[in-house]
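User:
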Amino acid sequence: MGIISAIQQRLGGDAVITPGPAMDPYLSERRGLFAGRPARAVVRPADTGAVAAVMELAAAHGVGVVPRGGNTGLCGGAAAADHSDVVILSLERLNRIRRVDADNFTLTAEAGCLLSDLQAAAAESGRLFPLSYAAENDCQIGGNLATNAGGMNVLRYGNARDLALGLEVVLADGRIWDGLRSLRKDNSGYDLKDLFIGAEGTLGIITAVTLKLFPPVRERATAIVGLDSAEAAVSLFGRLRADSGDTITSCELMGREPLSLAITHTPDCHEPLAASYPWYLLVDLTSSATGAGLAQRLEQALSGAMRGMGDYRIAADPAMAADFWRLRNSIPGAQKGAGASIKNDVSVPVADIPAFIDAASSAVIDACPGVRPCPFGHIGDGNIHFNLTRPTAMTDAAFLAQWAPLTRRVHDIAMAYAGSFAAEHGVGQLKPQEVARLKSPVEQDLMRRLKTALDPDDRLNPGKVVPPADGPPSAG
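Assistant: Predicted structure:
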């Protein structure tokens, strides 16, 4: 009996989609770089036991398994690798919220739950789940954990890793590790959950998680600030963090070029200030207390910090705050209106952000005259999306042909500032060769040892994250 028949027998026919039109949506991929890669089938288990059964059968038949969440990743982690023999395991039916414990400030949910549904469930219980970013209506919590997603609120609440207390994981051989603990303190051995968070499904398949909750936000103040330089933005961030009583939840840096693209190509995006500035800072202060006076704190901090600052507006109401945030959240999509783009997700120490942007901009312009750097991102945690929009006189195809050398330059500069070439979107199959090129031999050896220990037959998400031991280093 073949693996597809065996899975159909164990899980039922409605859990399996074979090649054809019904499978096509599962072969899509956000950037289109790895779309259409074939798979034997798409399997849609409805519970953790069914996921375990799929892994047992995959091991018995020598077939790889590619976990798939909401398909919002940008590095091909949920697409089949080239020439791989795999089934795609969609977690969409594992979408139950198992428990909300308001007194313990925890929520336990299955991996296929949408991030926005978890936010809503927490709110219904008078609590806050703070993980948030533009794709929250599409992404699933399992994928958020598999890539250690960050988003808008990392400065205050941390990455996905920081919000997870316990996991349930199906291992490569089909065993289930039940680590769904809701403890804040447990020093009884290795913290196994951290092996699987950020591993992109290469060490085990996350099927459920217990998450931290927080008191709800009762007061918010939002401002957008025009600035003369990125140095002024970093300086202002430090001052705001101190003068606001450390109530900053989000602090987003936007260059003029990406902001202009958002205004030009997105409905309901408008100039936020009377004049144009080279840089903008979008700031959110939040508090769980009533009467915190955040708008007054923000006004006082901004009015006293004039060096390098041109103008600012504090949102008068939630609608105006939403307008400010629409500008920031529209940037990635707006780039499409200006032609092909090359996206770089890097991080550097906060103090080095201005120097990195200057050096990276000079390097890519020197290599590709007319290219339009579009830097924006989370200044509070050093994560800069250093995206490149094609020169106006160049075709999309000609520009995308320069992906590898331009990306290599950006990555090299980020690493020169003790940064990372993969800040929050992971490695997937886009960057394993950059792991081989830029990570130390010791780090690579440890990664391979972990992979071999937990998945000796390379059954879990083959071709992702860990480069082959004999792979030639090249740009990702």
